[in-house]
Amino acid sequence: MGKKALEGIRVLDFSQLLAGPYATQMLGDLGAEIIKIERTGTGDQYRGMTFFARYIKDKQSPLFMAWNRNKRSLAANLRNEDVKKIIYDMVKEADVVVENFRPGVMDRLGYGYEKLKEINPRIVYASNSGYGPTGPYVKRPGQDMLVQGMVGLASMTGRKDWAPHPLGTTLPDVLSGLHMVYGILAALLSCQRTGEGQHVEVDLMRSTMALESQALMTLLNMDVDWERPASGIGHPFQSAPFGMYACEDGYISIAIMGNTFHVLVEVLEAPELMKYDDPDIRFEKRDEVFFAIEAVTKTKPVDYWVEKMLERDIWVAKVEEIDNIDQNPQVQHMHAITEYQHGQVGKIRCVAPAVTLSNTPAAIEMAPPLVGEHTREILKEFHVDDALVEKLFAEGALSEDHGNGKGETCH
Question: Which of 12, 215, 230, 253 is most buried per CB count within 10 Å?
């Protein structure tokens, strides 16, 4: 495999949980060197969190493993003065620092942007928080579901008689990770031109509001009233038939917008529905229209309707259960699910990198590390005195864990 797109970029990653680690994982997939700096012993908080109260082969958290491939781990006590000097020396040779502590924490520890900029003026320093670095919410916990509720995303999700409904995935965290990556890449490009680094600041609140841009553009500039539909309409501002419909053996999504309602009526072979062939009616009576359509779709299986509708170029798809996603023929064709070997738990299946680069492809080359798995290796590369390293290990200021063997190279 040839040179990677971000080969030669060195990232010191102080982040934990989801948003920051997702950002650094994406950078690592593209070839950046990611040094994950964790607390001694327990490491990233996500190592101790999981779904279903279970761990992969009783050893590794799937939550941690989802966001931490292509990284090496250095476990250290950041408050130790000798460790601090080592980190400062590492900053001199780094290109990027990433952190997602609450605002002020890194400054108190001695690793804030202003301090590290003195050490390396070219450093790109990326911070991810819940609500930005200042303001009335700065001390509040910044967590994904809390933000979903705070910015109105939950209020737009679900049916009329439901309480505000959180999404089935951690969208604000992922969105802020994506925003962090594009901010880091832009700052690196700027640094190439000017020789100066800068502070990239991203937060869950603004990242999620960016997702809501079309809804907010509507509400901020138009005098409209809205409420969630009582049926399965797919968006609280949309008309029927835009939504998800029950069939004989499952569900389909129908994403018709504009003036093609008559085509759907023809496919459904339900001419009585033509009384709704008016966009105003389809909004004002959208729940009535939805249930009238669903009464027809329930009479036939999913595959029947998908085939018939696709023949007429109606936007339709089967609604899949998430645990069947690896059986989807398009997912298989794109190799969107891949696998690698982990030294402690064996074969791991995961989502492959989502970006395709023709000349410098992304790749999974390292399994998620154990806590401090690479501590000695990393410090040796930075020429830290062996005697000092042994002293810090003896004091507990550094730690390492190789489990049942080092993580193997991934394929």
Answer: 12
